[in-house]
Amino acid sequence: MPSLQSYHTFGLSASSQQITPFSDITSFFAARSQYTSNYLLGGGSNTIFLKDFEGQVLINRILGIEHTETAKAHELRVGAGENWHELVATCVKNGWYGLENLALIPGSVGACPIQNIGAYGVEVETFISSVEGVAFSDKAHFELSAQQCQFGYRDSVFKHDLAGETLITHVNFSLPKQNEVVTTYGELAALESPTPDKIFEEVIRIRKAKLPDPAQFGNAGSFFKNPIIENHHYAVLSNKYNDVPGYAVGTDHTKVPAAWLIDKLGFKGRAINGVRCHPTQPLVLTNTGGATGKDLVSLAREIMLSVQGRFSITLEPEVRLVGKEGLIEL
Ligand SMILES: Cc1cc2nc3c(=O)[nH]c(=O)nc-3n(C[C@H](O)[C@H](O)[C@H](O)COP(=O)(O)OP(=O)(O)OC[C@H]3O[C@@H](n4cnc5c(N)ncnc54)[C@H](O)[C@@H]3O)c2cc1C
Residues 295-324: what's their mean pLDDT? Predict the structure, then answer.
């Protein structure tokens, strides 16, 4: 049974019956038909294999970056198996700006629309013009406009109506030539005369300083989503805790940083065997060595129960957890 340990950034010890990289649609469907159970993987930075997976893991290696331009924008058609950060670096190097705030996010281009990746004041949906793929049911090609992708906070149609139904083969980006830099995020605001190149370098510097490097401590980035609660619930919380941060979402809701909730409960640095709540960023759970899926589930559930008990907020995992038969819920 081939090991999956190096195929997911959390690095738990797990295996599958077969690991098959593919670089085109024909070989994808040919491999897929050999097993009844299949799991599609990009960079494995949002997926955690908790146990041995009883099926085949298909690794997307569809490559290629095509560039064209109009008077107004740089248009890119990018293979889903391209590395996300490499794409951002290529864009910045060529003066195709917009994606620089999203530097150093691990993973593949094909996964970026699925949870509408975001960081430092920018979400990728701003620059996606369409997403191409094939449906598993009839192998038909589709191209969804950004609007049809129904992007939301760490959300899209690929997590709902189309969840587990499609292979994303290409993502099309439109990077406007007249693009305003975004420096709303605290540390970026301190940049003098910000340019996209400076933002790119600064985001890399901040991320390296703040976030655990998966090569050192296995992790999958933010383990939980930041919960969005109703304004009256937020008012109750802020009466009790005057330091609770909140960011308006539309007129009726407020987004609360999950890291604040977890920190308030004293989880920073707390560990169950090889799984630890990261001491400087409690939203990230790490594998400090020899962790098991059971350790991870125990710590994650303890955090969820405590947050529910103290704040009446249900935390939702941002990561995908895979058990022996496929995706599982916590
Ligand atoms: C250190 C670290 C920092 C991170 N920081 C951020 C951050 O700042 N912002 C952010 O938004 N995310 C962040 N993440 C999460 C992660 O990097 C993103 O979610 C990324 O887009 C996942 O890409 P992937 O290729 O690794 O996905 P995978 O884990 O391989 O797959 C994720 C899901 O997408 C599906 N999938 C993958 N490729 C395809 C495809 N071609 N077609 C259809 N389905 C597919 C998989 O089946 C799976 O369900 C971070 C992760 C880490 C480890």
Answer: 98
